[in-house]
């Protein structure tokens, strides 16, 4: 195939990858073939992008919300009309099976539609005063230029969760996807601008986090940093933001526990656990990362879970029939998975399924790893830090109290899963679990209408839902004396 040459949008300037300037090579993780090039922004281009966004802010923020909403709807329609092409690029650069990539593109369109509807639902307040002639108004106004920096595991989904609410609120945006998988995001930014968005409202830059990301986040004209990625990078960005007292929205790493109680609906627990452990090859912030199963049902759960995981098919995301699991996105992630499996074996854990790369010769150039089921204790590294791979560690516990204690023991607080038939266990468990989302008997979530906050080291602020729009607005108090003569 001929590699795609993507472009950056910087105000009214289009910078194309033309083989002359600095570019990132984007690899297909299924075979390491080059599938695209993206231009790398230097300090001057980053400055131009932020300046273009700052220049566009006054007119974009003043535009009536109904008209901003129309622009967002136009972007949603454009994404929908181009779904297949975008999904194809996404599978090629990130690895997930085509139907999952299609779902991610559709979710991005949904985000633009949702925030088009929310754009007109920004309400202020009036506060009663102690004087007949004093009025007190509370306004909600956009921050200004937003730097949006995101991870590679759901490159388009994660970026649309930032761009859509920020634009709806009246902010302007400079988007920096991960250099590991930037093509789909860069395509969507170009497409959004071609669909009629005024120049400067939405801009894109590309390049490594340590260079381009850093320049963008520390630019003095950036008013808000919205970030999705690892906790360590988040910490670094928080320090940068502190220097300049910038506002932040942080969606950071997770390490989601799944608790299987003695009265769990077993069919559902097994099916959901397998689905959420191995989706996107486990490269999911809300993957099931550690399973605590109560001893009385442990044999049944573990046996059925392992049998189901062993049936999953691994292969390139464009294969037909479609595989269940694509490759990991890069070599570093696979190295981490292999380290975690080796650590588990050293600690005496039992690897029931997988634990290695697949044998098939045709998969040997890709970053594949077999779905892996491990039974051990929560001393294993994989039960303490993100593996970000297709690995499901299981620990047998005595009862629900022990499961909740262990689930809460880590500093991660993104998502947790609880399986029980008892309403009281469900409600009390949900109240005790220290996570921004508690899913009871389901593995949904990360869906646009619902808030998705990270607790503890998993984040600051709330992405998605109406609160996801409020994050891009700040409060102003207007106090008016009307009693003068
Ligand atoms: P990273 O934190 O490594 O990178 C995320 C983004 O930050 C990338 O665009 C990266 O650029 C950029 N970046 C890296 N260093 C800097 C820096 N010094 N200054 C500015 N930007 C920087 O995360 P990964 O991409 O490896 O993604 C995996 C992580 O993301 C996992 O921890 C996962 O849990 C988390 N995540 C959280 C989600 C949530 O909603 N809470 C959702 C999805 C993922 P580049 O890659 O180009 O170098």
The total number of structural domains is 2
Q: So what's the overall shape?
A: globular
Strand element count: 25
- Determine the fraction of residues in helical runs and give it as a percent range: 25-40%
End-to-end span in angstroms?
A: 77 Å
Question: What's the architecture of the largest domain in CATH terms?
Answer: 3-Layer(aba) Sandwich
Give a quick precis of the structure.
The chain has 485 residues and is of the alpha/beta class. 39% of the residues lie in helices and 23% in strands. The site of NADPH dihydro-nicotinamide-adenine-dinucleotide phosphate has 33 residues, from α7 and α8.
Can you describe what's shown?
The strands form seven sheets. Strands 15-16-17-14-13-19-20 form a seven-stranded mixed sheet, with helices on both faces. A six-stranded mixed sheet has the order 10-9-8-11-12-23, with helices on both faces. The protein has a three-stranded mixed sheet with strand order 1-5-4, with no helix packed on it. The chain is built from 14 helices and 25 strands. The mean pLDDT is 97. Helix 2 packs antiparallel against helix 4, helix 4 packs parallel to helix 5 and helix 9 packs across helix 10. It has two domains: 264 residues, Aldehyde Dehydrogenase, Chain A, domain 1; 192 residues, Aldehyde Dehydrogenase, Chain A, domain 2 (3-Layer(aba) Sandwich). Helix 9 links the parallel strand 13 and strand 14. With 485 residues, it is α/β, with parallel strands linked by helices. The site of NADPH dihydro-nicotinamide-adenine-dinucleotide phosphate has 33 residues, from helix 7 and helix 8.
């Amino acid at each position: 195939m001929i590699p795609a040459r993507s472009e950056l949008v910087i105000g009214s300037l289009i910078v194309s990858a033309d083989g002359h300037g600095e570019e990132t090579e984007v690899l297909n993780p299924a075979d390491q073939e080059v599938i695209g090039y993206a231009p790398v922004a230097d300090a001057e281009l980053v400055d131009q992008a932020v300046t273009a966004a700052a220049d566009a802010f006054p007119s974009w923020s003043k535009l009536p919300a109904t008209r901003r909403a129309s622009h967002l709807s136009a972007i949603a329609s454009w994404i929908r009309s181009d779904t297949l092409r975008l999904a194809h690029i996404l599978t090629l650069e990130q690895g997930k099976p085509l139907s999952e990539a299609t779902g991610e593109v559709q979710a991005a369109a949904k985000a633009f539609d949702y925030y088009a509807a929310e754009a007109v639902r920004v309400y202020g307040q009036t506060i009663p005063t102690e004087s007949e002639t004093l009025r007190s108004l509370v306004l909600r106004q956009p921050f200004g230029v937003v730097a949006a920096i995101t991870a590679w595991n759901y490159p388009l989904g994660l970026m649309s969760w930032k761009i859509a609410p920020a634009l709806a609120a009246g902010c302007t945006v400079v988007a920096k996807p991960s250099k590991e998988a930037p093509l789909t995001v860069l395509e969507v930014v170009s497409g959004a601008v071609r669909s009629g968005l005024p120049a400067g409202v939405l801009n894109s830059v590309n390049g490594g986090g340590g260079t381009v990301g850093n320049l963008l986040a520390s630019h003095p004209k950036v008013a808000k940093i919205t970030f999705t990625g690892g906790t360590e990078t988040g910490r670094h960005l928080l320090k940068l933001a502190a220097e300049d007292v910038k506002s932040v929205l942080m969606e950071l790493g997770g390490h989601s526990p799944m608790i299987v109680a003695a009265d769990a609906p077993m069919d559902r627990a097994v099916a959901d656990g397998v689905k959420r452990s191995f989706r996107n090859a486990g490269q999911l912030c809300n993957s099931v990362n550690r399973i605590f199963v109560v001893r009385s049902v442990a044999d049944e759960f573990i046996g059925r879970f392992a049998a189901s995981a062993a049936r999953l098919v691994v292969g390139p995301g464009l294969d037909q029939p479609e595989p269940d699991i694509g490759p990991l996105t890069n070599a570093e992630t696979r190295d981490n998975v292999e380290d975690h499996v080796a650590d588990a074996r050293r600690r005496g854990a039992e690897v029931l399924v997988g634990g290695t790369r697949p044998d098939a010769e045709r998969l040997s150039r890709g970053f594949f790893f077999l779905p892996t089921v491990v039974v051990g204790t929560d001393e294993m590294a994989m039960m303490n830090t993100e593996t970000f791979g297709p690995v499901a560690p299981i620990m047998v516990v005595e009862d629900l109290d022990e499961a909740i204690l262990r689930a809460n023991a880590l500093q991660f607080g993104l998502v947790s899963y609880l399986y029980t038939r008892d309403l009281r266990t469900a409600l009390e468990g949900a109240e005790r679990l220290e996570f921004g989302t508690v899913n009871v008997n389901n593995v949904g979530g990360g869906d646009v209408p619902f808030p998705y906050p990270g607790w503890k080291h998993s984040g600051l602020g709330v992405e998605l839902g109406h609160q996801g729009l409020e994050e891009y607005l700040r409060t102003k108090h207007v106090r008016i004396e009307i009693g003068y003569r």
